[in-house]
Amino acid sequence: MAASFAPSRSKALGRIFAASSASSLPEFLVPAWRTISANQSRLFSATSRCPSKLGRTPITIPQGVTVTKGDLVAKQGSRDWKATLMSKLTVNGPLGQLSFDAPEYILLEQDLENKLIKMNIEDVENETQKEMWGTSWKYLSNCITGVSEGHSAILRLVGVGYRATVQERRGKQSFHGQQHLILKLGFTHTIEEPIPAGLKVTTPQPTRILIEGTDKVEIMSFAGRVKQWRKPEPYKGKGIFINDETIKLKSKKIS
């Protein structure tokens, strides 16, 4: 015995309204699905698409800072199966030189008279380009600030007996004059964290660590490695905090 299946609701409605297509119906009686063409997709949001708020903001170039864009070079990342054309953006300033790789679709427009630089992309509707638009803008802004003013980060040591000093360890230097950050964090031994080249680390207080440099990525990377030795715990609030970082305390478990 053959099984009979009922037609879908959309097909049934289509047959009903197809029969009455010859007669004119008021607009409010026409179903919504008939007002949308087959090739027109319905958007989740009714708001119009807008470009990146960061990317379309011009960046002010301080006195003595220059930005240059290199030639396109094919580079392949460790997780990419296809090589991507990248151009190196180099920023020179009073405090040094920084550079990073930007995709080929990142466009730069410099206004030397007003000391402004604008960043744009080739296709505003492309999602990948829109994602890298704001990211590349932030990289460029950090580089300009780094070579003109510099970046800094403060680590706060919260805990009984937590101390930090900066010393030079002979025989443990990867380059001449390298210093080490010596930490006492409640372990049976002290922690020695080598300071990378280009960073200046000082301890204005035994429980405060000041990191200064031009590369913000390197500064926050070093601060993150130091934080890994004592992550903030939520019961007593002890640990190493970066800048204005806070943690919500939990109530103790009572059995």
UniProtKB/TrEMBL annotation:
Gene3D superfamilies: Ribosomal protein L6, alpha-beta domain. One of its GO terms (biological process) is translation. Residues 158-240 form the Large ribosomal subunit protein uL6 alpha-beta domain. One of its GO terms (molecular function) is rRNA binding. GO terms for cellular component: mitochondrial large ribosomal subunit. Pfam families: Ribosomal_L6 (PF00347). Keywords: Ribonucleoprotein, Ribosomal protein. InterPro entries: Ribosomal_uL6-like (IPR000702), Ribosomal_uL6-like_a/b-dom_sf (IPR036789), Ribosomal_uL6_a/b-dom (IPR020040), Ribosomal_uL6_bac-type (IPR019906), Ribosomal_uL6_CS (IPR002358). PROSITE patterns: RIBOSOMAL_L6_1. It comes from the Eukaryota. Belongs to the universal ribosomal protein uL6 family. This is 54S ribosomal protein L6-like protein. The lineage of its organism: Eukaryota, Fungi, Dikarya, Ascomycota, Pezizomycotina.
